[in-house]
Every structure is written in structure tokens, then in C-alpha cells.
Specification:
Length: 545
């Protein structure tokens, strides 16, 4: 017997409709090139998103068509999040930091029909335009007055599109499994692959994000979104904010320490999120300037993901800012949030040292998704906090296939997706990433975690960043090589660093050598590019240190 309740599809348009009516005055604050601080409300975003949907309809865009964006975090980009998905088309957020050949590849692969772009990317678009075969027109995200003269074919102006539309557009009712947005993986592990989210997966992910043991986002929060909107939809935050009515701060391209601090101060930011590299640089700025964040700011939590949160970042937020780090794990294929590290009742009253130890874990699984560990043969492993294995995940917001990649689904018969990460899960369900499967160092039958070594090294006050890669070894098969960047004006020798690591990691896992470099290669999303390091140090030979 079926129940007798109403059924309404879970649609992205319902988020902005809700925000516009229940939180109509909540602000969306943006920093951009053509207007240093722009303020609008969710009602404005809804009204203008509808105009964009109307304008795209007039340009011939239909349900399922892909429309690209090449833009920083700003209110116009937010309007595209709701306008394009809301009309049933697919928003394809393109990462402008990819190599131009990669952008050309993914825009052609996605077959985008129009491309919206921030005018800061004008020269990139001028260069790429002739190679983008399916793009019928390019829409500069600015007004006429700020539109430079550009050599771009079929160039349109965003504010003209908005101005020429009436406000009478109605969001269509769609099947909740309709595709809503498309993100390509950053290509750390090969060619970028497209992950195609649905309205339903996006809404369920957003709803879970707002739960108290997740990010606990609410109408009383002001969220500073340091994660780019082209990186897994800013981890789904624009949707979660509309769901809760939280005030939003969108920083544009300004992710330097000074700009972040000013925004946090001026806008009374309570919560933020981003990858570790952003926070490392931010905390360094705060230290150099001798600022007093604990007194100045009301920031109380920071979500960190994308790479392991270094202990020093967690400690600094805790001690100097009075803010708690919520360590989280996810990937493009998982929308991205799967686990978040929040304490349980039993952790209340624990001292700082114990809390920080707990926060080094990537956290507990959220309702709606499940995780498990398996060995190389697919056998499920124990969750004892010690046994490490392949991390598998399944659930409502996990991809089942890549976009336009022929062949079977990449899931097993029970829908489990192998993440490519190696992890442990303890008795309380806290998952800890030990490595990416291909980054592990396999030394004489033992696995050495490159992440554990990197974390230990970055706790040294003179070390800014560290990367550990496996180097072939005659006797042990592989041994770790540590490549480090010292902080400005800091002197540290190889031996000093090894002595420091000596009591922090098992002796047999100590790196066989340490190399100092000026900088480490990062992907477009700020992750260490170990593939590049492996190329660079491919012929490295150990000599005794
Ligand atoms: P790509 O796979 O192209 O780098 P993603 O952004 O999807 O792009 O990266 C997902 C990967 O990032 C995960 O598989 C994991 O290895 C890593 N990752 C994400 N969050 C964390 C975290 N908190 N700690 C350690 N690694 C993380």
C-alpha cells in the first residue's frame, strides 16, 4: 500500500524560491573587479536567475543543454547556479586554473552551448574561443560600462541579457533525477572526467550539510566561501546557504590573507571552508601582521577538506582564532561531502591535545552515504582503527558513471565505488585517510603513509610544506623521499628535520632522504601534484644521509 502524502520533486529552483520567500533579506555579499563590494539578497538572486533562465530560453537553450561558466565566486555566478539548473539545463563550472588545453578538452567534451565568463578571463577566452567547437556565444559577466573591447565572436553582455527580460519566468517542474550540473575532476589522476549531478543528489547533499553533526549551517551564520564555485560547486555551499538562509560572502579572486581577514571582520563571518593551502597562507599572514583574530573575529568553525588538514592549521585556528576545524573528506565523484569530523558525546571534556588528535581524522559518515574498507581481493575489513584498506563509498550523492564515457558503470554489483584512497575506520566510525592508493610507499611488505610523514614534517616551525613520494629501492622495493619547502627566512638542515621526525613516526618509515626546494607543484585545486614530483624525481638515487 502506498502512503498518502504529497510528492514534489526535489528541485534546485525550490531552494532559491524558499530563500527568496523565507529569507528574502539575507545578504549575498560579493567582491569582484567591476564592483569592489556588491550586496544583494536572495530575492534579488531569484529574480535575476529567472531573467537569466528566460534569456537562455530565448537563445535556444533547452532542458539538458550544457552551459559553461568560467568564473570566480560572485553573485552573478550564484545566479547561474540557480538560473541554469533551475531551467533544466546543465551548469558546467569550468576550472579556469586548468591548463588551456585541458579547458579546451572539457568544454568540447561537455559540448557546452554558451560560455559565461568573468572579464578577468577575457584573454583566456579570446585565445580559446576558436577551439571551442560547440560554443555558440560567449557571455561576459559584467555590464556594458565595464565591458572591454574584446576579440571574441558572438559576444554578449550579462547585464544586457538581464535588462532585456521580463520578471515573469516560472521555474519548470522537472523530474528530480534531471541533470543539474557538471564538474570535471581536476585531473590529478589522468584526463579530467565529468561528474553529472542531479537535482535530487544536490538537494539531499545540501540538506545533509546543514545538519548539526555535519556543518550545522543555519540562518544565524555568515559563510565565507573560499572554495571556488568551480570546485565541486563550492562543495555544494550555494545550495546549502539557500536552504538555510545563511548570509554568504563570495570573495571573487581575492583569496590573499589581507582580503580574507578584512571580509571576515567587516561581514562578521562565523563559518568558512577551503583547502589547507588557503588556510596555511592565511594563517601565515595573520601571524606576520601580528593580528588578534580571537579578539577581532567571530569565526567559530572552519571546514577543511580536499587534502589532509595539517595539524598546525587545526591548532592555530583553535588557539589563535577560537575556531573549531571540521575536517572533511570527499571527492568530485561524491558531491563532495561524505565524512565530517565532529565530536561525539563521549568526547566532551577531553583536553585540547585529545581533540586535535581526533580532528586529524577525516570524520564520520553522514546519513545518506555509507563507507567500508576492503582488502586487495574485495574482502570487507575490520573497523578497528588500525587495519587499513581500500575506501569504498555508496549513497544518494555518489556518481554511478562518468559523463560520456562508454562502458559499464565503475561500481561493483552492490553499487560500491572504489575511491582510490586508503583509509582506516575506528570503532566509533571515524575514518582516517592514510593515503591515495597510488601514493602509498610499499616498503618491504609494509605500507608507509606519505600523509603521516608530511603531517609530521609540517609541524616543524621552519617547514612550510612537505611532500613524500616513493622511490624505487633495490632491497625494500620502495622507500620514502621527502621534498620540503622551508618557511621564509628559516634555516633548517636535513639532519635537524630527520631528528625532529625521529620521535613522531616509526623509525622504519623515516624518509631515506630529504630534498629542499623553493616550491612544490600544485593542481588547479591546490593539491600537491605528486605525479609531477614523481616525474621530476624519477631518477633520484638515495645516498646515505
Ligand atoms: P582529484 O581526484 O582530481 O584530485 P578531487 O577534488 O575529487 O579531485 O579529489 C578527491 C581526493 O582528494 C580524494 O580522493 C582524497 O584523496 C583527497 N582528499 C579529499 N579530502 C581529503 C582529506 N580531508 N584528507 C586527505 N585527502 C583528502
Amino acid at each position: 500500500m502506498l502512503g498518502l502524502m504529497q510528492h514534489h520533486p526535489l528541485l534546485i529552483s525550490s531552494l532559491i524560491e524558499h530563500a527568496a520567500s523565507a529569507h528574502s533579506k539575507s545578504q549575498v555579499v560579493s567582491h569582484s573587479t567591476d564592483s569592489p563590494t556588491h550586496r544583494c539578497t536572495y530575492s534579488d538572486i531569484n529574480r535575476r536567475a529567472k531573467k537569466i533562465a528566460g534569456a537562455l530560453t530565448a537563445l535556444g537553450i533547452r532542458e539538458g543543454d550544457r552551459v559553461g561558466s568560467l568564473a570566480w565566486n560572485g553573485y552573478r555566478h550564484m545566479e547561474l547556479f540557480f538560473g541554469i539548473s533551475g531551467m533544466g539545463a546543465v551548469l558546467h563550472t569550468v576550472n579556469p586554473r586548468l591548463f588551456p588545453e585541458q579547458i579546451e578538452y572539457i568544454v568540447n567534451h561537455a559540448e557546452d552551448e554558451y560560455l559565461f565568463f568573468d572579464i578577468g578571463f577575457s584573454s583566456l577566452v579570446e585565445k580559446l574561443a576558436p577551439t571551442l567547437k560547440t560554443v555558440k556565444g560567449f557571455i561576459a559577466m559584467t555590464d556594458r560600462g565595464n565591458l572591454p573591447s574584446l576579440k571574441i565572436p558572438n559576444l554578449l553582455c550579462y547585464e544586457d541579457l538581464v535588462a532585456n527580460q521580463y520578471s515573469n519566468y516560472d521555474w519548470p517542474s522537472l523530474d528530480e533525477n534531471t541533470a543539474s550540473s557538471l564538474c570535471y575532476t581536476s585531473g590529478t589522476t589522468g584526463n579530467p572526467k565529468g561528474v553529472l549531478y542531479t537535482h535530487r543528489s544536490t538537494l539531499l547533499h545540501a540538506m545533509q550539510t546543514c545538519m548539526p553533526d555535519s556543518m550545522g549551517l543555519s540562518a544565524t551564520d555568515t559563510l565565507f566561501i573560499a572554495t571556488p564555485m568551480y570546485h565541486v560547486n563550492a562543495w555544494g555551499m550555494p545550495y546549502a546557504c539557500a536552504m538555510t538562509g545563511a548570509k554568504v560572502v563570495l570573495p571573487g579572486a581575492a583569496l590573499d590573507g589581507e582580503s580574507i581577514y578584512r571580509s571576515m571582520l567587516d561581514e562578521a563571518v562565523t563559518v568558512s571552508l577551503g583547502v589547507p593551502t588557503v588556510w596555511l597562507a592565511f594563517q601565515q599572514y595573520v601571524k606576520e601582521k601580528n593580528l588578534q583574530p580571537k579578539q577581532d573575529l567571530i569565526l567559530n568553525r572552519v571546514l577543511i577538506g580536499g587534502a589532509a588538514a595539517p595539524r598546525v592549521v587545526v591548532e592555530t585556528f583553535e588557539e589563535s582564532f577560537g575556531a573549531r576545524v571540521i575536517h572533511a573528506w570527499g571527492m568530485t565523484e561524491t558531491s563532495p561531502l561524505v565524512t565530517l569530523c565532529n565530536p561525539l558525546m563521549k568526547h566532551h571534556g577531553e583536553n585540547l591535545e585529545e581533540r586535535i588528535k581526533l580532528q586529524s581524522k577525516q570524520g564520520r559518515v553522514q546519513f545518506g552515504v555509507s563507507i567500508k574498507l576492503t582488502d586487495d581481493n574485495g574482502k570487507t575489513l575490520e573497523q578497528d582503527g588500525k587495519t587499513s584498506g581500500h575506501l569504498l563509498v555508496r549513497g544518494h550523492w555518489i556518481a554511478s558513471k562518468y559523463y560520456h564515457v562508454e562502458g559499464r558503470s565503475f561500481l561493483d554489483e552492490e553499487d560500491w565505488f572504489d575511491t582510490g584512497d586508503i583509509a582506516t575506520i575506528d570503532e566509533d566510525g571515524y575514518m582516517q585517510i592514510t593515503d591515495r592508493a597510488k601514493d602509498l610507499i610499499k616498503s618491504g611488505g609494509e605500507w608507509i603513509s606519505s600523509i603521516a610523514l608530511e603531517n609530521a614534517a609540517t609541524r616543524h616551525p621552519s617547514i612550510a610544506e612537505a611532500a613524500v613520494i616513493a622511490i624505487a629501492h633495490q632491497k625494500w622495493q620502495e622507500r620514502p623521499l621527502m621534498i620540503v619547502v622551508a618557511k621564509n627566512d628559516c634555516e633548517i638542515s636535513k639532519q635537524e628535520l630527520l631528528d625532529y621526525l625521529g620521535d613522531k613516526v616509526a623509525k622504519w618509515s623515516l624518509p631515506d632522504d630529504v630534498v629542499f626546494v623553493d616550491e612544490l607543484p600544485h593542481t588547479a585545486t591546490g593539491k600537491l601534484q605528486k605525479m609531477k614530483l614523481r616525474e621530476q624525481f624519477g631518477n633520484f638515487k638515495f645516498h646515505s644521509v
